[in-house]
Amino acid sequence: MADGQGYTVLDRGASELDHVAAFEVPAGHYFVLGDNRDESRDSRVPRPFGPGLVPAAHIVGRADYVLLSVRPDFNLIKPWTWTRIRQARTATRVGAH
């Protein structure tokens, strides 16, 4: 990232979503990006297979907080993995650093 901050991300290998063309988002629309970059059906996937660019009128809510953030090896039904909760990112405001 521009400020030097980096993040570890899960990459499941080559995907058709790895390289997409640049988008021009028209006024009154939003580009939405899923958190599972290899498999998310987000604005990179045009209609009818994905949402494409989302009209502002279709947005009915806003995320303000991260309720729970966990590492990929966390499993809710395996209590011994509960130490893999990302404490620094859980119950935080979205966009807060």
SSE order and pairing:
Elements: E1 29-30, E2 54-55, E3 65-66, E4 92-93
Antiparallel strand pairs: 1-2, 3-4
Overview of this protein structure:
Strands 1-2 form a two-stranded antiparallel sheet. It has a two-stranded antiparallel ribbon with strand order 3-4. The protein has 97 residues and is largely without helices or strands. The model has no long low-confidence stretch (mean pLDDT 87). It is built from no helices and 4 strands.
Summed up, what is this model?
Helix content is 0%, strand content 8%. It is built from no helices and four strands.
Please name the defining characteristics of this protein.
two-stranded antiparallel ribbon; single chain; 8% strand; 0% helix; little secondary structure; globular; 97 residues
Strand residues, percent: 5-15%
- Outline the low-pLDDT stretches: none
Shape: globular
Rg calc: 16 Å
DSSP summary, beta strand count: 4
SSE succession: EEEE
